[in-house]
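Journal club prep — side note

Before the paper discussion, L.F. wants everyone to see what a predicted structure for a comparable chain looks like in token form. Sequence:
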Amino acid sequence: MNRIMLMVLKCMPKIPGWWIKICRLGKDDTTYTEQQRYDFLRDLVKIVNKRGRVTVESYGEDNIPEENGFILFPNHQGLFDMLALIDTCSHPLSVVIKKEASNWILVKQVLKLLRAISIDRSDIKSSLEVINQMTAEVKQGRNYVIFAEGTRSKEGNKILPFKAGTFKSAVNAKCPIVPVALIDSFKPFDLPSSKKETVQVHYLKPILYQEYKTMRTPQIAKMVSERIQEEIARTIGPI
């Protein structure tokens, strides 16, 4: 909360203009392309992170597929995760977010700009509809972020088990799966401090459809989780 207040105070003069532009870009009839909308948001995020005293270090950006139509599967540490991903990924990203968070002030407008999808995790029918929508959009060349743990870990850099169902869209779309290891992404917003923090984003080698096409979703979930765990352990040691 301390850092959020710091970000708001340091960006206060720009917030009214940003708000107007975000709302304009989020309109269904906007003439801006997805890349233009995303580039505006990315520039904004970089400013906010810098003024919030957060340095985001990126590794393995060359592992991000050049061709759009992929899904990022990062571990989930907290509210800062999407800021870290947008800061470091130049390809337009959208995200699947839990329904209860999709109506938060400002978050709602940003999600509309990103054409994000909200999901009611308690409604099986709704979940299936989201899977089908994502499959269709990824096939058309859109990129998504899915937090496969389903909820954020509250144990720092220790990750929770990945849910197999979150990989159904990737399987159906036959798209590249990009594991992403987030390190210390919980610190900016979860710690009661506004001191300088560094967050690391590690993009791992993409897993192509040919590699996972014969696997069941629980096996895919385990493989992606293990690769992220290995990268975190390699970087900061066993947890």
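L.F.'s comment for the group: The radius of gyration is 17 Å. Keep this in mind when we get to the figures.
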